[in-house]
């Protein structure tokens, strides 16, 4: 039986300069800096040839569940937390958040900054079953998206289509939204289990991958969602995070509550490229570097962050 997600959020990490926060982490920032999280603390870490050093830390009064870097300012990022708020931080200043946005009524589990340069848009997904759209220069949300019937675990912008984002939920659906219409464009009943993560392919605007509590990864062509275009099996517990490679069109990585990170090439007859087992607890955060085609960061409930070059990506480089 697949392991159900823990009752509290668990999540991502970020590389270059990183920020670390709560029980979950996001990996690899868009600039040479990067970010991760720890319970109520945002850690900004500098990576260099000698390893990692703490650059700065910020405290918050609740767990921080996700983090996203601005595409326009290498010092600015947004976090989200268990108190239903988002926090806007300037890592160049050793002070509290520049601004706090409090509209969600339950934990905010996911936050993502639009990849369209010049666009100041952030989406947040919450346990209150809503997605909110924000401009960090404005003190309130621009609009609220409703439709999911359970906890929202993941929200992520399309890297191809301005104003388009995806969300995944405990209601077992993947949904595609358009900010111009404030309505859902596509509803995909993607799994018969809670969907904890989704990501867009960096090379195909119609391809989205989902990872779920049923231990499977499924790829969806948004032009025809009757059947997945691929299914990847191998994890033995719930999949917590899935990320497409920014360098290889058919390569992706996933991490799971089975303590492993797995690398896949969905175009191959035998798609599993490598399994990495270097954590002693749930692996809950994962990202691939935007600067290096071989570098990966992950983190786990064992309170460690690993930065490494898996053999399979080194061979592809």
Automatic annotation (TrEMBL):
Protein localization: Cytoplasm, Cytosol; Peroxisome matrix
Q: What's in the GO CC field? A: cytosol; peroxisomal matrix
Which Pfam families does the entry link to? WD40
- Which parts are the WD repeats? 101-144, 145-181, 188-224, 232-274
Q: Which InterPro entries match?
A: PEX7, WD40/YVTN_repeat-like_dom_sf, WD40_PAC1, WD40_repeat_CS, WD40_repeat_dom_sf, WD40_rpt
Q: Which GO terms describe its biological process?
A: protein import into peroxisome matrix
- Broad class of the protein's primary localization: cytoplasm
PANTHER family assigned to the protein according to its UniProt record, in alphabetical order: PEROXISOMAL TARGETING SIGNAL 2 RECEPTOR
**Record protein name field:** Peroxin-7
Q: Which organism is it from?
A: Bos taurus (Bovine)
Q: What is the lineage of its organism?
A: Eukaryota, Metazoa, Chordata, Craniata, Vertebrata
Gene that encodes the chain: PEX7
